[in-house]
Write a structure and sequence with these properties.
Strand content: 5-15%
Largest sheet: 6 strands, parallel
Distance between the termini: 72 Å
Number of strands: 6
Order of helices and strands: HHHHHHHHHHHEHHEHEHEHEEH
Number of helices: 17
Strand order of the largest sheet: 3-2-1-4-5-6
Radius of gyration: 25 Å
Mean pLDDT: 86
Shape: elongated
Length: 474
């Protein structure tokens, strides 16, 4: 029976890895997700076979029912606009689960003292449990703050205690580590006091709050990815403590892939991960009005759907740049309809995807794929940036910071050095926005005041639909 369990685990690991490989390309992403999910089913079945002699089947079945009842409805009903919040929340649940597993292991082993009765080395198990407790609790509470910022329950701007922020974080980290050392020392003798382990969870939780609160909205995609990596590492540590190979491998896959993604996204923003953790920017900014003077003396030029339609009708190539505003307006299907009409006129339509557009990794790809936009039409930043100079019209829908030329031209800008989409090099730019409010970075965008830019104000979905109707009338 043990050979069967390990055999099923190996099958599950292969499915995890193969599924992850599928996520590297949009065309295979759905299939990769299904394969990885099937692998998790195999891993769960193997674990149930492994614990076949347990007397807690009622609790296990009840937990499975509760998990399914709580997990499936939001996954089915959540709007694409709220997908980043759902990802943050689900990730937080994973971290919190790991922290509770570590606590349960502590209680079940009577403060780790009963581990000494076994033949396996005790120290690695204790260290892994304590690591899982700290990182799991940190990830849970950090993810809660990320969820609340994305849901706008909390403001997206950085919330700090000023210069005391980093010293406070360091004190909390050292206090959590000190409590963990006390538990480890107690476990080697008479057993650690339960309140010390609870103190670890509380201190790590407060640290999670204090680490994410100062991070601004502009850095949220990186934060979500980082918290996901931490949850994976904590799950792997819990797997070591429980001697569960499935948790070890799955946790390491999540931790490694999340770490790689975090690093790639930080590079896409030209920001180091320590700088992001030290405190981000974003979540504020003032609004200008049409006709107001902007950077360099430029003014905002408003336009209307009829003029936009005429401009598009005489273009050879059009690039659509989606941003979070596209998700808020749920305009992806309207954009697809407009693009289809343009393509029928012989106009080439492409989509420029910035790595950190939206509120989570791949947010724009998911939205456009939902509207059946061709994967071949979606172009990554490095692939399409040279195209803007020979593009007749670029339509920016709700994107702000990822199109801000200040990142390239203004050394004093907070986002200077961040790779952006070279939208300003297009022959004409149409920006769809509800107002002149700044983006999540909270800084003004000189693109809006450029001579080649026109602003189409209003709800993006309605505006695109009106442009489409005007195109049909031409």
């Amino acid at each position: 029976m043990e050979s069967l369990v390990y055999g099923l685990y190996i099958i599950a690991f292969g499915m995890f890895i193969y599924g992850l490989m599928g996520l590297t390309a949009p065309k295979t992403a759905v299939r990769g997700n299904k394969i990885a999910a099937a692998g998790m089913v195999v891993a769960v079945l193997a674990t149930l076979i492994h614990i076949r002699d347990t007397t807690n089947w009622i609790l296990i079945v009840a937990a499975l029912i509760v998990g399914v009842a709580l997990g499936i409805p939001p996954a089915l009903k959540v709007k694409m606009t709220a997908m980043p919040q759902l990802v943050a929340l689900f990730n937080g649940v994973g971290g919190g689960t790991v922290a509770l597993i570590a606590w349960a292991e502590f209680i079940d082993s009577d403060g780790f003292t009963q581990l000494h009765a076994g033949s396996e080395p005790v120290a690695p198990i204790i260290v892994a449990s304590l690591f899982a407790a700290i990182i799991g609790s940190l990830s849970f509470w950090g993810s809660v703050i990320a969820f609340m910022k994305l849901q706008e329950i909390l403001p997206g701007r950085p919330i700090t205690v000023g210069r005391l922020q980093q010293p406070l974080n360091l004190v909390l980290l050292l206090a959590a580590i000190t409590a963990a050392v006390m538990v480890g020392i107690g476990a080697a003798s008479t057993g650690a006091e339960p309140w010390i382990f609870i103190a670890i969870l509380v201190l790590a939780g407060i640290l999670g709050l204090m680490v994410v609160l100062p991070i601004g909205g502009a850095d949220m995609p990186v934060v979500i990815s980082l918290l996901n990596a931490l949850t994976g590492l904590s799950a792997a540590a819990a797997g070591i403590a429980l001697n569960n190979i499935a948790m070890i491998v799955a946790g390491m896959i999540v931790g490694a892939s999340g770490s790689i993604l975090t690093n790639l996204m930080a590079k896409a923003m030209n920001r180091s991960i320590p700088a992001i953790i030290a405190g981000g920017f974003g979540g504020g900014g003032t609004a200008a009005s049409a006709g107001a003077a902007g950077p360099g003396g430029g003014t905002v030029t408003a336009t209307n759907p009829a003029d936009v339609a005429i401009l598009l009708a005489y273009a050879n190539q059009v690039i659509v740049v989606p941003g979070y505003g596209l998700a808020v307006a749920q305009a992806q299907h309207a954009v697809k309809d407009m693009a289809k009409l343009l393509e029928q006129r012989g106009i080439e339509v492409k989509y420029a995807i910035h790595p950190v557009a939206g509120r989570m990794p791949g947010h724009m790809n998911v939205l456009l794929a939902e509207a059946d936009v061709s994967y071949d039409a979606m172009r990554e930043m490095d692939e399409i940036n040279d195209e803007f100079a020979r593009t007749d019209v670029t339509i920016v829908i709700g994107a702000n910071d990822v199109t801000n030329p200040a990142a390239r031209n203004d050394p004093s800008s907070p986002i200077h050095g961040m790779p952006i989409l070279n939208v300003d090099r297009s022959k004409a730019v149409i920006v769809l926005k509800r107002s002149m409010n700044s983006g999540f970075a909270g800084i003004e965008n000189p693109l809006f005041y450029a001579a080649t830019t026109s602003m189409l104000f209003g709800d993006a979905k309605k505006s695109v639909a009106e442009v489409t109707e005007q195109l049909k009338a031409l």
